[in-house]
Amino acid sequence: MKPPAAPHFRHLFAVVALAFAALSVAASGPRQLLPVEAFFDDNTIPQMALSPDGSKVAMIAPNNGRYSLALLDLTTGKSSVVVHFKDENIRSVFWKGDDTLMFTSAVEGHEIPLLASTDLAGKRVKRILESRRRQDDFSLFFGSLEDTFPWSDEHILILGYTSESDPRKIAPSIPRNATPYLYQVNVKTARRLQLSQLEPGMQDGFYDRDGNLRLAVVIEGTDLFVRSRPANGQPWRDLAKLSPLRPDWAILGLSGDGATAYILDYRPHDRGVLRTLATDTGNLGPVLFDPPAGEIRRLIQNRERTQLRAVVYEDDKIRHHWFDDTWRSLVRSLEASFAGHAVTLLNISRDEKRFLFLVSNDRNPGIYYLGDLRGPTPQIQPISALRPGLNAELMRPMTPIRFTARDGLEIHGYLTLPVGAEKRPPPLILLPHGGPWARDSWGYDREVQFLANRGYAVLQVNFRGSSGFGRQFMDAGDREWGARMQDDLTDAVQWAIAQGHADPARVGIMGASYGGYAALAGATFTPELYRVAINIVGVADLKLITRYDLRTNPISRAIYSKRVGEGDAFLTQRSPVHHVANIRVPTFHAYGRNDPRVEFTHWQALEAALKRAGKPYESHIELAEGHGFEKAEAAVKLYRAIDAFLMKHLPVDSGS
């Protein structure tokens, strides 16, 4: 396919104005301070989904302080709100046929969301899975979505806990480790058909087009088994026995007929290669793809899962390896048209004549486009900016970097410099990611851009223990919380200073979750390096997150023992809460009262320790938030407080 000579534009969504010029970033002028709301308010459209017939787009859109489910008719250009809740944010959406939408929503930071269906007018909403608002709440039917069944217009697969006597209620005496049942659900009526009870200890399952659980990953004691069967109710066959702490391979997906699994094989090298596995015999096929760098992230299959179209992998940026010649040619044409930007294919219509895609880069969160192949030449037309009103010209480029740690290990990361950094070294904010078994990626990051807009250089580091760089690199972080993982952050700061990217007298550290732990560790274990530390929902006490007395799963205990460590003396040594006496700099702490991951007890213990040590601090507590501040008003309040804290304790010279 030849790339279009010139994109054909027409506005489809009158509510949101789109400026194509936002994709072209001009040379930077003087720094223009933007309000906190420019980065953190809810003026964003986080998701769009194209209907199977290609005639409509469903979207998550802002509406009176919450996110609603909205609909855009591509033929008429008319938009409407389908579902809106006063106390819940709608978080995701997908289509079932051309007349039904599925959506999830959650409230007050709880992470087990409502799953519901609706007609396009929002008049027939069917609640399929209820949001679990408390950890011990077993009063409503809850569970998880197992498979969207994209080839079916009416059915999905869910895992759920229920009693046979009343399918809308959970048995009051259900134990916490109860085995769920697999259900096929009609999304238009919410009626459930119980297919089977899952294998005890099942950690993951893969389904064919008929709803048969064909592959299961099962824990028995301290062993991990991969099992297959031809259909529900048939006996299982062991395909492999793997080490749960370091398996030879992992399943990425399954073909629609259930005959072929796609696996990530770690035996050739520790970043993994893609190959097939026959589910009836366990025989492995040849290598389909060996990433030249980085790791494979996910597969792209067609709607029926009869064809593997592409594999997505990531090194310093997210990249695609295409198996489908048609879509390879089309996407490469788009990438040529939008040079310097990532093109992400989101949805393809049933007839494969229309498709939805996102064009984005490090300075622009993206613009949604509709591609149309129905005419003699391809046409593309913008639908909406993901974040309307954002001026990409005022954002700063994110540059991949790498350096060598003190023990010789190569470390990757990203550096974002503010306007004026070429004149004198700016103050630096080190921004370690959460997880820690995750990674930072290239692209628009509202927190990074907010800090750069204030005049700070921002350094993101994929320290040892991060994912995406091979298992050996991840294993190098084992039991290194507060030790070599923290050394990598220290070495990153020293690298930035040596390169002239940072003022050594004005360095701060800020992070969330594990990043919050790293901020606390920086303030307590290397207090001489930083002028401020900002901890957002950070781990303060390693004994609280390991809690081996509550981990009934032996493999969970083994993984945390391997990755974090064990023993009272060891965990105490690595826990910042026990070392607050070392703090020399102003600290800021933000927590959500409903956090299910880093529970509020971390802040209670940390605050008590700060008070005992007589250390001044600032805190920001949200009673109706969880692990991260999801509601826009809560996020704006948080970053206004952080803005004031930084201006007070790590000021940037005016006019820089």
Low-pLDDT residue spans? 1-27, 134-140, 163-177
- State the name of the first-level CATH class of the domain at 396-649: Alpha Beta
Strand order of the largest sheet: 28-29-31-30-32-33-34-35
* Beta-strand content bin: 25-35%
- At the fourth level of CATH, the homologous superfamily of the domain at 396-649 is Alpha/Beta hydrolase fold, catalytic domain
Rounded to the nearest angstrom, the distance between the terminal CA atoms is: 48 Å
Radius of gyration: 25 Å
Average predicted confidence as pLDDT: 89
Named at the architecture level, the CATH assignment of the domain at 396-649 is 3-Layer(aba) Sandwich
What share of residues is helical?
Answer: 10-25%
Q: Give the oligomeric state of the chains in this entry, treating copies of one chain as homo and distinct chains as hetero.
A: single chain
Q: Under CATH, the topology of the domain at 396-649 is which? A: Rossmann fold
What's the tally of helices?
11
Q: Say how many strands there are.
A: 35
How would you sum up the global shape? globular
Structural class: alpha+beta
Biggest sheet details: 8 strands, mixed
In words, what does this structure look like?
There is one protein chain. The chain is α+β, with helices and mostly antiparallel strands. Among the domains are: 122 residues, Peptidase/esterase 'gauge' domain (Methylamine Dehydrogenase, Chain H, 7 Propeller); 254 residues, Alpha/Beta hydrolase fold, catalytic domain (Rossmann fold, 3-Layer(aba) Sandwich). 17% of the residues lie in helices and 33% in strands. It is built from eleven helices and 35 strands. It has an eight-stranded mixed sheet with strand order 28-29-31-30-32-33-34-35, with helices on both faces. The chain has a four-stranded antiparallel sheet with strand order 1-2-3-4, with no helix packed on it. A four-stranded antiparallel sheet has the order 5-6-7-8, with no helix packed on it. A hairpin with a 5-residue loop joins β17 and β18. The longest helix has 18 residues. The protein starts with 36 loop residues before the first helix and ends in a 7-residue tail after the last helix.
